[in-house]
Specification:
38% helix, alpha/beta, 8 helices
Length: 206
Amino acid sequence: MELIKKYFPNLDPAVEEKLSRLGDLYADWNSKINVISRKDMDHFYERHVLHSLGIAAFIQFETGTQILDVGCGGGFPGIPLAIMNPGSQFHLIDSIGKKIKVVKGVAEALGLQNLTAEQIRVENHPKQYDFIISRAVTAFPDFVKLCHNKFLPTNKNAITNGIIYLKGGDFEGEIKPFKKRVSVTPLANYFEEEFFETKKIIHLSM
C-alpha cells in the first residue's frame, strides 16, 4: 500500500481501506483458484494494483461514467479502478467462469456497489459504454474489432469515448491503422518503478 500512497497521497479513507485489503483477499482467493502467478503475487501492488491505477492517473472519470472491463481475468484493471471511482459504474467480463467467481468474491467482500461481473464473451455482450478498458488481452486491432459497436455516442469526460488499453512492448504496427484517432501515454510519465518503463496506455477514440 505504501507504493499506492506514494502516487495517490490524498486517498479518501474508505478508498484506502478497500485498496489495503486487496493483498490479503487475493492471497486467499489465489490459494483456492490460481488467477495470479506466484511471482506476480510477490509484486502484487506494483504489477496489478498500481498498473491498473495507471488509468486513474491518466483520466478521472466523471460521475455516472459507464465502463466495461473486457477479459478482466481476476479483476484487473476493473477492481482497483472501481474502488478509486465510486461514482462510476464498472462491468467486468471474462469468458472463464473461475475468474469471474474470484471477481465477484472480491467485490462482495469489499462491498463494491458500483461493480458487476459476468461470464460472457464481449462479442455476445449487448450493452454500450463510455469506455472499454483492458490489459492487453489480444493484439490491438483484433480487440478493436471485438468492441467497435459497444460505445455510447455522447461524451461526458475530458477525453472522447473509446478504448483505454494497457499494453507493453512494441506495438507501433498494431496502432498504425488508427492514425490520428489513437494516442499513446507512457506509464513512466506517472510511475518511476522499472516495471513501468515499457508499459503504455493506448486511448482510441471511437
